[in-house]
Amino acid sequence: MVFVIILLVFSFFSSFAQVYMLPIDTVLYFKPGKGQNLGQDPVYFPKNIFTLPDTNASESIPSSSPKDVCSIGLGGEIVVGFKNYFLLDGDGPDFTIFENAFINPITKKVFAEPAVVSVSEDGVNFVEFPWDYNTLEGCAGTKPTNGKANPFDPTVSGGNSFDLATIGLNRVRWIKIKDICDTILQNPNHPFYDALISGFDLDCVVGLNLKPIEISNTNESKFPLYFVDNLSLRLNFDKSLSCEVYDILGRIVEKSINCTKNFQLDFSTFEGNVFFVNLRSGNDNIFLKILKMQDALLVQ
């Protein structure tokens, strides 16, 4: 109930400025690493990372329940984002990543399980935030969470916050988190070395400057944006679009300019089972993830 109230309050007030503050709500890709697998069970995942930070988390008490965190493991990576929003570059930080870092009561140092962070608008081409191997500056997973504070205020929330202006981007939709704990474990002389490091544990990610994706046939349109017919995807836009289809390796398998209504993509001719479709009209676009089954398409 507390989470719901906070979420509604911040969504309401931020809407006056035409932006929203919300947690992530979708996973585009997840490749678990080695070792730790806390919170990966379908009973918990991905619901456990679509919430706000664990309210019990603090500098001395890390979140550790599979209901609240998901370990991506040593060398693992995950791509998360927002189904119906772009994350924009606003004033100050644009999103915050919460992990379960804490202050070791004996060494008085942060027990950090770091990850590098990169972002993308299309889910294929990612730009990495700069980071430092020795200080871990620019990484996620290095700052404890203050679960009692406002999760949408980086000055008090804890976690690691990121500003799109740092890498010169105006808007993105996807956030990639890649564990680098293995590189720390291989170097006992590293300032953050600890034999107990087992991989980045994701609590949640919140967007601080979100804008709804606005693309449709017309503002009043009640028609769907596309139709699925067996292994074909037929577009239903009134406006002209450009269309790009990528495979799981990021290779372009189809590129069409000035696609008109009823333009059809036949996925039976494409090798592979996972594809990403980027439809663009002017400054607006919509991104689809396509899973090709034996005789049907699953659109996400």
Describe this protein's structure.
- The protein is mainly β and 300 residues long.
- It contains two helices and 22 strands.
- The protein has helices at 2-14, 181-185; strands at residues 20-23, 26-31, 70-71, 77-81, 85-88, 95-99, 102-103, 110-111, 115-120, 127-128, 160-162, 171-172, 174-179, 201-212, 226-229, 232-235, 241-247, 252-259, 264-266, 274-281, 284-292, 297-299.
- The strands form five sheets. Strands 1, 3, 5, 6, 11, 12 and 14 form a seven-stranded antiparallel beta sheet that branches.
- The two termini are 29 Å apart.
Instruction: Characterize the biggest β-sheet.
Output: 7 strands, antiparallel
Q: Radius of gyration in whole Å, from Cα?
A: 20 Å
Return the structural class.
Answer: mainly beta
SSE series: HEEEEEEEEEEEEEHEEEEEEEEE
Low-pLDDT segments, ≥5 res: 1-17, 216-224
* Count of individual beta strands: 22
Q: Beta-strand percentage?
A: 35-45%
Task: Please indicate the count of domains.
Answer: 2
- CATH class descriptor of the largest domain: Mainly Beta
Number of helices: 2
Give the N-to-C terminal Cα separation.
29 Å
| CATH level 3 topology of the largest domain | Jelly Rolls
Helix share, percent: under 10%
Any guess at the CATH architecture of the largest domain?
Sandwich
Gross morphology: elongated
Query: What do the pLDDT scores average to?
Result: 85
